[in-house]
## 1
Amino acid sequence: MEHEITLVVNGVARRARVPARRLLSDCLRHDLGLTGTHVGCEHGVCGCCTVLLDGEPVRSCLTFAVTVDGRELTTVEGLAGPEGMSPVQRAFAECHALQCGFCTPGFLCTVTALLRENPTPSDEEVLEGISGNLCRCTGYQNIVKAVHRAAELLAEEGR
Ligand code: FES
Ligand code: FES
């Protein structure tokens, strides 16, 4: 049996017909064409599939699409504003916090939520905040630098 769901994704109301077992990650990628959300492990370990659900980071590979009917989602495609990349995105680019980029959408969503909650995190808080996201390329130093740089940019821009 299929269910008709409506989601507000990146500010736009979207509809999909999904079976009850459809994962949110598959719904975003295959039903809505938003392939910026990456799927690595598919069982909640790597954090690549992280999106923001009503502003809170969730693993879309562990979430059934039907359970978020009517809710608001932000994917990596929705982080940039009309004026271009968000401060978190710019900081990742500036600090070379990505190599292959596979993990990056999940990190960007996680860090966006982290800095909204704690605009001036300590090193320890940054490490804890990103501990649910795995990167196979970077060794994390530049990611940590990027989180601090993003905090600076957000403060400078008064966000
Ligand atoms: S794909 Fe969801 S946590 Fe790895
Ligand atoms: S940049 Fe390649 S997995 Fe993180």
Note: The beta strands are 2-9, 12-19, 50-53, 56-59, 72-74.
## 2
Amino acid sequence: MNRHVPSSHVLVDETRRPAPAGCADAPAAPGAGPSVRAERGQREVFCGLTGIIWMHRKIQDAFFLIVGSRTCAHLMQSAAGVMIFAEPRFATAIIDDRDLAGIADANDELDACVERLLARRPDIKMLFLVGSCPSEVIKLDLARAAQRLSAQFLPDVRVLAYSGSGIETTFTQGEDACLASLVPTLPRAEPQTKELLVVGALADVVEDQFARSFAALGIPARFLPMRKAGDLPPVGEGTRMLLAQPFLADTARALEARGATRLPAPFPLGVEGTTAWLKAAADEFGVDPALFERVTAPMIARGRAALERDRARLAGRRIFFFPDSQLEVPIARFLNRELGMELVEVGTPYLHRQHMAEELALLPDGLSIVEGQHVDRQLDRCREAAPDITVCGLGLANPLEAEGLATKWSIELLFTPIHGYDQAADLSGLFARPLVRREKLKV
Ligand code: SF4
């Protein structure tokens, strides 16, 4: 069963689906790290279209054309509505009832729609056709449409396609699908060119900070996504990639197929995570440890000092994560190790064992990590635990607040610059603020 709830979330009843291979319960043993348990049931997640809201800010001359229904358009308008002051960089080509009934030739209509759009907007250099549940239902082949339209509009505009459909996905997978669709277009790097590729959308301010750090360490670094459609970073056997986001499984696989090697590291969240992430690159590129120390020490000191105020507020507080963004594990590690928070349960929609290995090693023994979702059981456990703060999707936040629990929307973690040293205190502030507000309201 798959139906819309008012906030355009998708509920997927998976009670009869078997757990995928590799998701078996892992028993907790002393010294064995956190325990990972799979849960399969009703899910409560946003669809992958949501990724457009941060991706369209990142690639400045790209346009995202959702091929979807009025519901998709409504979701995107309400999620991003306030930001449209200038020419928007995403829109929805509406599939209406006629198309769904198979009467109209949707491909012709799509081509005409793209022609009109590109004639009116010469600033667009890259066009993403974004699939949705409705376009998948009518089996509209957007990959083929993208090839057809690229042949027509290249070299001025490259047309790509990916799916943002809400069936079986989490909202951050939209970014993964978008970046994976870019990988085949990346130029081939010479095998002897050893270069770092940072993969994952970062706020521009964070990207600039990291670019400065890599330059100070003498590491040649490029970023994916790039800010301009024409600046595609080359990839090849010499490419070493550092993932900046934990939800990029498909993109990483596609880059590995092009010869890139992933550098294992925790994610650059918090002072500790950022240092370990930079160190992974520094070690790979043979950076002198003394230089690494010189470059990072002032940033580490500044980051730690900035965390002190929130540490006093958050230490000993109990936090519960519902699965939503796939950022849960690295953020739980940061809150536990750098701010002294107690982790009640860490839910994550999907746990990539390899990409997450360095994070898992930093989490306390016996911690309960729950992969997947059975929302009713999770709600029961959350209510019983009565945590000080609960991280969850938008659909759960209001009911939980009404029950007296303080909540934090996990989607905010995607809209706020949270990576790197200078943002560590902004990240802790996201969790401290709801508690401070609640205490003020009590008085
Ligand atoms: S893609 Fe699917 S889940 Fe997302 S808004 Fe459109 S119909 Fe709803």
Note: The pocket of iron/sulfur cluster is lined by residues 8, 10, 47, 49, 68-69, 71-72, 75, 132-134, 164-166 (CB under 6 Å).
